[in-house]
């Protein structure tokens, strides 16, 4: 391949998006090694409520213990390895009982009962408890880490947000912990997770595929993504009253949002699998669950003030704007995915200048995988 002019840099080769071997390496070195945003804490309303989520190659059971804290375990019975729960969510009263031979674990993961063990020496109830997974709560989500020795949450997760916004208080102003889920939509996207990250990072495509979004945020029509510049929030257009599909007034503003954050949109990527969008009256959080090289489940939450959700305010115009953006973006990613295996993309494509910050993401991926260069 002839060298690109210096104003252009190349993307990762197509194989990075299609090869299951690369994906397996990413599962080990990225999703099973870093903090992973797993579950909205409010989905675990009371002790015994649980969710199962896929983190790398592992199924993780996240639940609320009797003391109110969130616990996470590998979803694997210690006896002969049965999946304890196969549903995505549910609730148990006191304990998880394995459907195979009824070994039973309390909400703290200790083995509390194993029937018919006569003739067998005592089974150590702690040693044969469920395997613990590290948990941290932030922004109202349970973040889990499968590493034995997790990396610093402050540096890797909080630090990503601070780097993007320039300080810690801007996200604190939105009180994301206390917001309520007004709407959740789950998307099953037939594309590699990195295509989704790259798409979220750039706005070169905005003028082509996001007519509603560029109406609300006119600067996006010029192709510059809000997250290319530290602390920059894209300003609403002159005749725009709210971050809604038709520019109409949204719902009640989040109380802590500062004057400088009003009428502005901020976008943040928290590597490896979270996108955060901040607007004055709601917050949109995407969590990706990569399942295969070519398949990613995205759970998208629209978070509003609790009183707004509680009184049944019309969230439709607010939700519809970013739902359309999601559909437009995911269709674009699905359009690219099959071509990642084409000879035409064997050496990858090109990043134009307004996409150059995506190059840093590629370097980060390669660094995690221990690869020197693409
Ligand atoms: Fe769970 Fe036997 S595999 S009790
Ligand atoms: Fe987009």
From TrEMBL:
Names of required cofactors: Fe cation
Alphabetical keyword list: 2Fe-2S, Iron, Iron-sulfur, Metal-binding, Oxidoreductase
Pfam families assigned: Rieske, Ring_hydroxyl_A
Keyword field contains Iron: yes
InterPro entries found in the cross-reference section: Rieske_2Fe-2S (IPR017941), Rieske_2Fe-2S_sf (IPR036922), Ring_hydroxy_dOase_asu_C_dom (IPR015879), Rng_hydr_dOase-A (IPR001663)
Molecular-function GO terms, alphabetical: 2 iron, 2 sulfur cluster binding; iron ion binding; monooxygenase activity; oxidoreductase activity, acting on paired donors, with incorporation or reduction of molecular oxygen
Domain Rieske: 36-144
Protein name as annotated: Rieske 2Fe-2S family protein
Entry-linked Gene3D superfamilies: Naphthalene 1,2-dioxygenase Alpha Subunit, Chain A, domain 1 (3.90.380.10), Rieske [2Fe-2S] iron-sulphur domain (2.102.10.10)
Lineage of the species this protein comes from: Bacteria, Bacillati, Actinomycetota, Actinomycetes, Streptosporangiales
